[in-house]
Amino acid sequence: MMRASRRASGIIASAIAVGFIGSIPAHAEGSRTSYISGWHINNESQRWTDNNTDAVNTAVGFSGCSTDTDNGFNDSRLTLWKDVSGPDENHGSRANFCNTSTWGRERAGDYYFSLTSLTYGETLHVKKVTIRY
Fold it and tell me: Taking the alpha carbons of 103, 109, 110, 114 in that order, is the dihedral positive or negative?
């Protein structure tokens, strides 16, 4: 009788452990944090490799944005590029209001973003840039 009780306790404990393990949220394949200092139109970020092993959308987040004018920062336009042999593939532009711009789930490859425009000023500074992929 005692043996059956121990077996049942072991089965219940294992089921609880599996339940907890199964509930761990999926994490992004990759991310990086950086900053931008003195960027002008057409400046490019460093490249990153997205192996597309998860369902995370490609996103670029800005915080602490400023420009070289008294008007301050209003918004910028960012373009996502896929680094390929020949002309790089344009994956679209997004407005960024010192928040997060998202492109959706991208295919595997090497990517970067460029600064396409600024509403005010000619020089962009961002205290924290977070890229998720």
Answer: negative
